[in-house]
Amino acid sequence: VEAALSELLEDLPVLFWTTDRHLVLESVSGAIAGEMDRSPDEVIGMPIQKYLGSYDPEFLPVAASMRALRGETVRYSCQIRGRFLHVNAAPVYDREGNIAGTMVLALDSTEQSDAQTRIRNAESRYRDLIDAVGDIVLWYDVSGMIVLANGAAERALRTSSLALRGRAASEIVVEEGRRLFLERTSAVLGGSVPPPFELALIS
User: Is 74 left (phi over 0), alpha (psi -120 to 50) or beta?
Assistant: First the structure.
């Protein structure tokens, strides 16, 4: 069973290790295990602190393993060797029900984290761009709820983008213009391109 599990893990973007009750490594496997400083075969018998590069008991991966030795199952996220990992640390019990060590499964989420960083950077650049525009810019979703407002909109409406977020865009249009606003919005959602129009906003 252990051999089959190890073979399976070698094809998955994970790092899996087990330790004894002294936090000495007994096994290491997973597709990203080979990207650590030492190969899995070289680290058997090594304290987990040395393997992870820190003897600080407050270092999250070490602290989580120590909690697992006390019977807790710990979930956390961390960065090791440039990899962003979602980790589960849990105790291992012997046949008598005593804690005999720990097992840790770390899922590599580096690509997802990198993608989220790129999205945040793109959003920041977009925000800088629309803030440089002198005209009012309001971005609302298909349900008509505001998701973003630029600085010009904040000044005109005398409120913040955060306060506007989640409000119905029609609420900031003067009452006599709401019907036209909703009609033109519906046309856009239907795939049409309505002609330019003007609306007064509530300030």
Answer: beta
